[in-house]
Each structure stands twice: as C-alpha cells, then as structure tokens.
Amino acid sequence: MDTILKLLGLPSPGVLLGVVAAILISGVIGTGTGAYLGYQWERRSHAAAVLAAQNEAIDQANRDADAAVALAVEQAKREADARVRAAGVRRKGEIDATAKARPECARDADSQRLLLDAIDLANGTQADPSTMSDAVRPTSQPSK
Asked: What distance in Å separates the CA atoms of residue 35 and residue 21, rounded to the nearest whole number?
C-alpha cells in the first residue's frame, strides 16, 4: 500500500490518517463553536426582547398610575369644591335664619311634639295613628 501512495504522491498512511483525524476534529470543534455562538446569540436576542417587553409593561403601568392619580386628584377636587359650596350655602342659610328669627314664633314643647307627630303621621312612621296620644287620653276610669 505504501507503494501505491508513493506512486500517487500521497504521504504515508499515518500522515494521511492524522490529516483526516485533524479535519474531523476541526469540524467537530467548528460545529460545537458555531452551535455555542448561535445559542448565545439567540439568548441575547431573547433577552433583549424580554427586556423590551418588560420596559413597555413598566411604562404602561406608569402611565396607568399617572392617569389614576390624575383622576383621583380631580375627583377629590370636585368633592372638596362641593363641600365648600355646601358649607357656604349652609352658612348663608344660618345667617338668614338668624337675621329673620322671631322669638314670638318659637315653639313650646307641646307644639313641637304635635308638629313632630304630624310629620311622623305624614311620613307613615307613627305606630298606630288611630289611637289617641297619652296627653289626650284620660288618666282615670269613668265612675259608675
């Protein structure tokens, strides 16, 4: 076999086997390196996509929080304005009532009770409107 290799101008079988082994080893190393670099490239690409999605989610959450805060501030402002207006109207009513108060029209306890009973009767909150109140009911039994 050595003679055939010498006729063809090829090196000895050991050198030929070494060259084939070197080619196979470099192919395996090249394939492994390529696979490793491809995996790393994919990981970086995936990590960049995940990072972009997370940043977008954070930005959206911040925009939502800002909108919620603005809405809460607006509602609180409207409620505070309404409370101020109601307090102003109440104060005006109290001032008007004080200015127009007439002591001669004040109610005594009996007239106040009668007024409240009439209001209860009109609202349907009185227990039994067909009965007489205790103030009208006689305290003793008639004699025989």
From this structure: 21
